[in-house]
UniProtKB/TrEMBL annotation:
Cellular component terms per the entry's GO annotation: cytosol
Residue ranges annotated for the PurM-like C-terminal domain, each copy included: 88-242
UniProt name for this protein: Phosphoribosylformylglycinamidine cyclo-ligase
Cross-referenced PANTHER family: TRIFUNCTIONAL PURINE BIOSYNTHETIC PROTEIN ADENOSINE-3, TRIFUNCTIONAL PURINE BIOSYNTHETIC PROTEIN ADENOSINE-3-RELATED
Provenance organism: Candidatus Omnitrophus magneticus
């Protein structure tokens, strides 16, 4: 998630640090976590240069642990992506997520029983897509005017922050394939659409704002990385908000 955040300004992630805290260190759990972090760093082509492991008896229940981390990226000042070039008529291209990514699990645990969660763990716990390599390649092929990582806050909070004044985004919710986990979620919950699109990524892990002439090239480039993508909306004149229709 951290390296995907770096991408939103056009930055290439260069290193990552982690923080692992627990009551008592269980070596197998710790090793598995570090292996996962190393795999993610390799996928993002960034270095794991260090971190902190803290044992704090009395602070955590047996078997519990806390995991955090951050990434640092670098970008040429002239190549920073800040959304200032976005204009009405640009399109919004959504890149598929693998599922929940790392957001909304508190709500997911309330909606699904423990038995349902265990039964569908392979779907619910799919690793987050790391978009670094495909998006950096795209940035060398076309002009990317804006990038939003759809994390906490969903569509309604993440997309407007990259928009200039007098630009509104209209998203067509029927324009992409929704992952199975979200179909299951929507059958189980009574949450309104607005709450779902504010809490979850709903199958779109990242959006790119580009000129419509670059849509085909973008979709084809992403397919090289086995990532599906769709034109899911457009930029129009209006208040700096997102409308989902």
């Amino acid at each position: 998630m951290s390296v995907n955040d770096c991408l939103c300004s056009g930055a290439k992630p260069i290193f990552f640090l982690d923080y692992f805290a627990c009551g008592k260190l269980e070596e197998k759990v710790w090793n598995d976590v570090i292996k996962g972090i190393v795999k993610g760093c390799k996928e993002a082509s960034c270095a794991l240069i260090g971190g902190e492991t803290a044992e704090m008896p009395g602070m955590y229940k047996e078997g519990d642990y806390d995991l955090a981390g951050f990434a640092v990226g670098i970008v040429d000042r002239k190549k920073i992506i800040d959304g200032k070039k976005i204009t009405p008529g640009d399109i919004v291209l959504g890149i598929a997520s693998s599922g929940f990514h790392s957001n909304g699990y508190s709500l997911v645990r309330k909606i699904f029983t423990k038995e349902e969660f265990k039964k569908n763990s392979s779907l619910f716990l799919k690793p987050t897509h790391i978009y670094v390599k495909p998006v950096l390649e795209l940035s060398n092929l076309i002009e990317i005017k804006g990038i939003a990582h759809i994390t906490g806050g969903g569509f309604y909070d993440n997309i407007p922050r990259i928009m200039p004044k007098n630009c509104k985004v209209v998203i067509k919710r029927a324009s992409w394939e929704m992952p199975e986990v979200y179909k299951m979620l929507m059958k189980k919950t009574v949450l309104r659409d607005e709450e779902l699109f504010r809490t979850f990524n709903m199958g779109i892990g990242m959006i790119l704002v580009i000129n419509k002439k670059n849509a085909d090239k973008t979709v084809k480039t992403l397919l090289k990385y086995k990532l599906k993508s769709w034109v899911i909306g457009e930029v129009v004149k209006g208040e700096r908000i997102v409308e989902i229709i």
